[in-house]
Specification:
The protein is an alpha/beta fold. The chain has helices at residues 46-58, 66-71, 96-103; strands at 10-13, 28-33, 61-65, 75-78, 81-84, 91-94, 110-113. Strand 2 (28-33), helix 1 (46-58) and strand 3 (61-65) form a beta-alpha-beta unit. The protein is globular and about 35 Å long. The chain starts with 9 loop residues before the first strand and ends with a strand.
């Protein structure tokens, strides 16, 4: 997997990592997707499918902004929130408090937003 820097999403990692295409320097904890970038995680999207495989192997969290996903048909309302719909395996939907809670046991050292 290369070029997280060019994708334009929030990248949350434990240590600074500037070596493109290398997971050896840092551990990516999560990718949080906003606005139209949520479409990347649609089921069948080649990039989304690759990210899902990387997330499964590394334990990286893939999360969509709940409101953004709902507006784009990638989440449905359920009791007390939203559930993902039509997205790659392992994706969660939520808001910043959900993201912070998911990362609370292993907080990141850096958050990169592009």
């Amino acid at each position: 997997m290369a070029r997280f820097q060019d994708w334009g999403w929030s990248i949350i990692c434990q240590r600074p990592c500037f070596r493109v295409g290398s997971f050896g320097v840092c551990r990516y904890l999560a990718l949080f997707f906003f606005d139209d970038n949520t479409f990347v995680l649609r089921s069948g999207d080649p990039l989304g499918e690759r990210l899902a495989r990387v997330a499964q192997v590394t334990g990286m969290l893939l999360m969509l902004c709940d409101q953004c996903a709902h507006e784009r048909g990638l989440a449905t309302e359920s009791e007390g929130g939203y559930v993902p719909a039509g997205v790659v395996d392992g994706v969660q939907v939520g808001c910043f408090p959900d993201l912070y809670a998911a990362l609370a046991s292993n907080p990141p050292d850096h958050v990169i937003t592009l």
